[in-house]
Structure formats: C-alpha cells, structure tokens
Specification:
five-stranded parallel beta sheet, 227 residues, 9 helices
C-alpha cells in the first residue's frame, strides 16, 4: 500500500495504462501482456538473403507501446523496447555476431516534428547492451516520403526509391563489420530493403534487420492430432 501511495506521489505510473508501476518503468500487468505478444522464436525469419530478427507480433500491448512511444511523446518507451530487444538477441545466439548497428533514419522534417527517431532510440539501447557501435549519421533519409501503409507494394517501392543517402567518410572503420539495421516495425520490408540497397552500393555488407514488431505471424506448429 505504501508503494502505491509513493508511486502516486512521485507520479511513477505505467506509461501504457497509467496505473501505479510499483517501482518499475512498466507495470507488471502490461509487461505480462507484452510478453504474450512476443514470439517464442524471434529467429524464425532469420534466414534467406535478408534475415529478420523480430521481438513479437504487432498487436495488443506491443502495438500500443509503439503507438504510445511515437504519438504520445513517450521516447522512454523506445529505450525500454530497445532493452527488451537487446536481451532477446543475446539469448537467441550462442555467439551473437559482431556488427555495426544503424537505425533506419527518419527524414529530418519528420524527426523535428516528433522530437526523436524511434528507431534511433531502440538502436542506441540495443547497441549499448550488446557493446556494439551504433552509427546514427552515415545513413540519412533525404526524401520525405508518404506513409507507406496507404500504398500497394509497387507504389511503396516507387515511393522509397532514392529515399536514402550514405556518407562513406563518416562510416569508415577498420576492420569493417557488417551492418545490422534496426527499426520499430517491419511490415513489407520495402523501407529496409531500400536502406540495404544503398548500403550495399557503397560496399557495406548488411547482415540483416532487427525490429520490435511485425504484423507477420509465423505458422502455428501443428498438434499431433493435425498430423
């Protein structure tokens, strides 16, 4: 009871439900709900020529957390989500690959309006925990694009063409490590693939992309009765 009163007094409230957080950043109830959105195998899509590592399904509390971060001015949620992504990455590999982390950039005008790049917040914490270099400046978004959810696949590709630029001088490193892109949501992959194309054209190897959420769902394993 004392903790509850102290939480109210200090306004230590969960940023998702606004209830007392009990000394944590997110309350235990919301944290449990978010865990239900997490994939049992975040490496399911870590395959092919552009592997994807993703924390969970873009639904429920995880979707709400991303929305609160972006649209309710809750940048601290980006750091919190980046931490969850980082520890999930660590425990998913026996020897996590050594990479340079690059967040998918926002156009400067949009970032100025929002006040932060959510992918940048996630990437910064992800890199800190995994002791990796995080490069926020070499890859830039130079084209202000329309919201992609309004467009079909062909229109998305056309809209994203030429959206990024790369400054090889700021990126210089020896020895060169592959790049791991970081974003909040992975939908069709159009944005990430265009970013990868620009990096590869500049001689940079791209290992894959990590994201907080995707609307894609891995197939549910069949039960013995279904076999």
């Amino acid at each position: 009871m004392f903790d509850w009163f102290l939480s109210i007094f200090l306004d230590e409230r969960c940023p998702l439900c606004r209830r007392a957080a009990g000394g944590d950043f997110v309350c235990q109830g919301c944290d449990r709900q978010l865990q239900r959105c997490q994939f049992s195998n975040p490496k399911y899509y870590w395959q092919g020529n552009f592997p994807l590592f993703v924390l969970g399904h873009y639904d429920g509390t995880l979707k709400g957390a991303i929305a609160a971060m972006k649209y309710n001015n809750q940048p601290a949620l980006g750091t919190w989500l980046g931490e969850k992504l980082a520890y999930t990455w660590q425990t998913s590999f026996s020897a996590p690959p050594k990479v340079t982390v690059i967040p998918v950039p926002m156009h400067s005008e949009k970032q100025q309006q929002r006040g932060f790049n959510q992918a940048g917040l996630i990437a910064k914490r992800f890199a800190e925990i995994n002791k990796l270099r995080c490069d926020h400046v070499s890859l830039q978004r130079t084209k202000a694009t329309k919201p992609l959810f309004e467009l079909n696949v062909a229109q998305r590709q056309q809209e994203m063409e030429g959206a990024f630029s790369f400054d090889a001088k700021t990126f210089r490193q020896r020895p060169q490590k592959p790049v791991l892109l970081v974003d909040d949501i992975y939908t069709s992959g159009t944005t990430a693939r265009e970013a990868r194309r620009v990096l590869q054209e500049n001689g940079v190897s791209v290992l894959g992309i990590v994201a907080i959420a995707t609307p894609k769902l891995p197939p549910t394993p069949k039960s013995p009765k279904d076999k």
